Amino acid sequence: MPPDTQAAAAAPAPRPTLADRLARNYVWRSIFRHGYADTPRNRVLQVAGNVWLHLHPSKIRRHAVRFRFTWCAGGLTFLLYLVTVVTGVVLMFYYRPTAEYAYWDVKYLDFDVPFGMIMRNMHRWAAHGMVIYIWVHMFRVFMTGSYKPPREFNWVVGVVLLTLTLLLSFTGYLLPWDQLAIWAVTVGTNMARATPLLGNEGPLGPELGVTPRYDARALLTAGTVVGAPTLLRFYVLHCIVLPIFASVLMMLHFWRVRKDGGISGPL
Amino acid sequence: MAEATPAPAPAPAAERKADAPATLSDKIHSWPYFVRAEFIAGCVLVLVLMIWSIGIDAPLEEPANPTKTPNPSKAPWYFLGLQEILVYFDPWIAGVVLPGLIIVGLMVIPYVDINPRGNGYYTWSERKFAISTFLVGFIGLWLGMIVIGVFLRGPGWNLFMPWDYWDPHKVVPLTNIDLPYFLGIRSTGWAMAFGLLCVGGWLVGVPAAVWRWKRRAEPMRQLGPVRYAIVASLFMMMAGVVVKIALRLAFNIKYVLVIPNILNV
Ligand code: HEM
Fold first, then answer.
1. Element (H, E) at B219
2. What is the torsional sign of CA B194, B200, B203, B204?
3. pLDDT digits (tens, 9 = 90+) for B121-130
4. pTM for the structure as a whole
5. Residue ranges of the domains in chain B?
6. Lesser CB count within 10 Å: N end or C end of chain B?
7. Residue A244, exposed/middle/buried by CB under 10 A (0-12, 13-18, 19+)?
8. CA A251 from centroid of its chain's CA atoms
């Protein structure tokens, strides 16, 4: 008999909990060979020995777990990102990034593909939610002064993540190829026309020979207007380039949270 | 002030939040306490998202039509703050310089905020300047402008109250004038000189004067000239945005400084 069972036998038997009842029967025991003894060692092993959970430290400062310290904002930003990745891959199976098909593929998703509508809805709302939650996260990190040494650089990584998140959202906005999409992106990319030196309407741009065909905006939109080439360009940025950058930076971000001594707290 | 004395902690800890841990070794196991909290928060979020997505459909308007421009044409809502700033500044400032400054400005915060207090807990009294500046910028300017752009801007990018009818033919007389003209300066040369004085004085003169006046004060000494210059110029530019908006709303001022083909502010 393992020592803790002996100890339990010596003490007056406590009333079995629901969990005990569930776990102490023939079927359960045929599936799970042994129970889980809630010992400090096992608690540590649960985290350290699990490929997903080992992102966490095995022990954590008490206040860091409180909802009112982090508002779970960083973690939920990440969760929303994961939701967009999963639902986004589903959408990619049905969506072709060409001016002829894009809009009708989205319609098809909305009306004919089983669960297509809910996938699209979840993708869109999770993306909006991510924008909101990343602001909440930045706000909380600022208000707790968590960018102070030694976490300066992780704040900088965060700002880049914020920029990437906005760009991800913006490039995705074009893909349904409806009126909302092209005009919002037209307004957004028009600003690039005014880039100093590099835009055809920016200060010193025309003087340097910058034309509408070759300027900062044309680089974004792959042409002088938001058209089919823009759609392809935004699609590649949205589905490949930006997610790769964002994912790599998130890895760096989480790694630095650990290396900087775990979540911040009063010294 | 009882700052940073490495004396035994109880007194400051008691002043602070009750949940501040007494010692560093006050740690708990991630499993189950932390993983459980994460799991619950994640479940709640996914549940809310699913219910939301069942109830509210993602918009899909008519197919893209490059010949039919909607009025108003709005950028995605999270960029409407920038679009709103276009009312007050030329496109290259509103659309390129200001976003760049926001990103750079956010990035330098940890390197110029050298106040060692308030690291890892909520406090107002220990970092009043940092927090109030951030709140003005983030809540006041960024979020405030988004709210205006989303809810109050209608056709022609005119202001409409929520109960107003969005009249596409609403005509707002263009009565904006430049500040020098407003003050009675009629010659272009003098107007430019006056504008340069205002803008230069705001961005360079005021910070320099404050530096001369206060440079021996303790916080300024710690900051040093380089960090002070960065903080002061970013701060004055942000404040300048507020001032420009106020000038426009109160006196219909279009520009303060006009240098044709180069810079209008
Ligand atoms: C994709 C976006 C992001 C994800 C997924 C993310 C995720 C996280 C997570 C999970 C944490 C652990 C603590 C917590 O949940 O609050 C964290 C901490 C942190 N984040 Fe982010 N974050 C993102 C963006 C940002 C941004 C925009 C900033 C700042 C501008 C930022 C700055 C920080 C800092 C400084 C910490 C350490 C905080 C502490 O130790 O208390 N992050 N992040």
1. helix B218-251
2. negative
3. 999 999 999 9
4. 0.89
5. 70-116+123-171, 174-265
6. N
7. exposed
8. 11
Reported as a single tens digit per residue, the pLDDT across A194-205 is: 888 888 888 888
Tokens of B76: 């995605």
Residue of A nearest to B50 (CA): A122
Distances (CA, A) of A178 to A111, A202, A219, A227, A232: 16, 29, 22, 12, 15
Nearest to A155 by CA among B218, B56, B110: B110
Write the single-letter amino acid at A235.
Y
In chain A the domains, ranked by start, together with CATH numbers, are: 67-259 (1.20.810.10)
Q: Please report the atom of ligand 1 found closest to the CA of residue A71.
A: 16
- Both tokens of A34, joined, read 């042994």
pLDDT, tens digit (0-9, with 9 covering 90-100), for B58-113: 999 999 999 999 989 999 999 999 999 999 999 999 989 999 999 999 999 999 99
Which atom in ligand 1 lies closest to the alpha carbon of residue A144?
Answer: 41
User: Distance from B14 to chain A by nearest Cα, in Å?
Assistant: 12
Taking CA–CA distances from B19, the nearest residue in chain A reads A63
